[in-house]
Amino acid sequence: MGKVILYICLLGLLTVSCQQVDKTVTSFKKDYSSAMTLTTSEWDSLFATYREPAIQHRRFKHQEVDSLVQQHAQKGILQVERIGASAAGRSISELTYGEGDIKVMLWSQMHGDEPTATMALLDIFNFLEGQEDDGDSLRNLLKNKLQIHFIPMLNPDGAEIYTRRNAQSVDLNRDARAQQTVEGKLLAARADAVKPAFGFNLHDQSIYYHVPETQNPVTISLLAPAYNPERDINETRGNAMKLIAGIQQMVQQYMPDAVAKYDDTHSPRGFGDNFQKWGASTVLIESGGLKGDVEKQQIRKLNFIIILNALMQIAEGSYEQYEITQYDDIPFNGSSLLHDVFIHNLEIGSDSIPLRTDIAIRRAENTIGRDYFVRGWVEDLGDLQESFGYDQVDASSLHFVQGKVSDKMISSVKELSRSQAFALLKQGFMAVRLNPAAVGSAEQFHNLPIHVFSQPTFYTTSRIDLGGTANFYLADDAGTLRYAVLNGYLIDLSQPLKETFKNRVL
């Protein structure tokens, strides 16, 4: 075997070194049959046990995370250090676990409006402090083999107002090269001090990416970032690819056909690309979309499982069992075809100019404090046969109907129950008026399946226009209202309400 390897190297047929070839051959012979495994039921049980109950929604603040971090500091199992402060003076902490030789860094929420992995890290902190359960062997493995450095909220100023950039309006993930921000300098300094062998760059991505050749949203997107424009594969990046192949297999156990790869174009400003360049096998994990998981609690659970499983494979070295070709087989994110609501073949024309076409609708979130409301609009119309939606309907036998405004006036949002609002909606009423004298901050938001307005007038959608509001009905040939499109939500009027509505008093 040694002569064969030497011959290959001398011919120059491989781009890797002889030492790397020898290592590849050796690792190929390893037996991973003794690698630690946990069943899905065991993972489920661990998550249920250690899920941090103080965080239930995405729009948590720095104070809540910092308070939990200080509680962990008091327990002493995780070593907690205040490593710096944000541009606005909010503390940034690092939590360290383990006494092993392999160093790993994980950083989350460098974009303030990408909090899913932060929730999962809080759950992982609880798990690492647990004892005398099915997780003991894993804890001991991680403690003895790894030294894990967690930075759970790198951009606390952005998190405070739920926005992507920091207090200076800089995208921290584009500051690895120049290091103009205090947060960017801090992350780079920690990378230099720790010199991790592995890195995890934890983000959220758009919920509108889909898995190619399917109508499934991408729930988890993965990437081994490129360390140079040529996107070469050295040992560092190759190890990240193998680790991702293992992550992909784990996700498939929970959500088949829900994984894709993020765009691997090299970004000289990006932290993931530079961590890879600095010698840390770096994995980007992007939390995407899942129908019905508005607050991303199921994706939070998935992050908990795949991060811990990846750490386990690093500790064992069992990620080496995977092939780079398995990473290559993961498709890239598909974009532009997935919408919140897709309506196929709807008649929206007039008697003189008929038009039967497709309608694509999306909803945008608008944050106010710890809450938010949505605004639905018509994103596209025309021949959209390749498009689809989280909710969709074939409207070939349906037609557009304009909604009505109820004569009823209410003195409080609480005066109208969901069932009463739904009854009005089924009668063709899309809006009800709130007494302007009763409007206050306490009634700013509501979850009713009807519009509530205090302004002098309210206009429902009289015709479907590009960029216009999405408030109308779909009726059958007999005139029966079958569906309501309310602020971009598709509501089946023949079924019980299931949707969680995030509407605002207008």
Offer a concise description of the structure.
This protein is an alpha/beta fold. 29% of the residues lie in helices and 25% in strands. Residues 1-29 have low confidence and may be disordered.
Task: Describe the protein.
The protein is of the alpha/beta class. 29% of the residues lie in helices and 25% in strands. It is built from 13 helices and 21 strands. The strands form 5 sheets. An 8-stranded mixed β-sheet has the order 1-2-4-3-5-8-6-7, sandwiched between helices. A 4-stranded mixed β-sheet has the order 11-10-9-12, with no helix packed on it. Strands 13-18-19-20 form a 4-stranded antiparallel β-sheet, with no helix packed on it. Helix 3 crosses helix 5 (116-128).
Annotation keywords:
four-stranded mixed sheet; 29% helix; globular; 13 helices; 25% strand; alpha/beta; 506 residues; eight-stranded mixed sheet
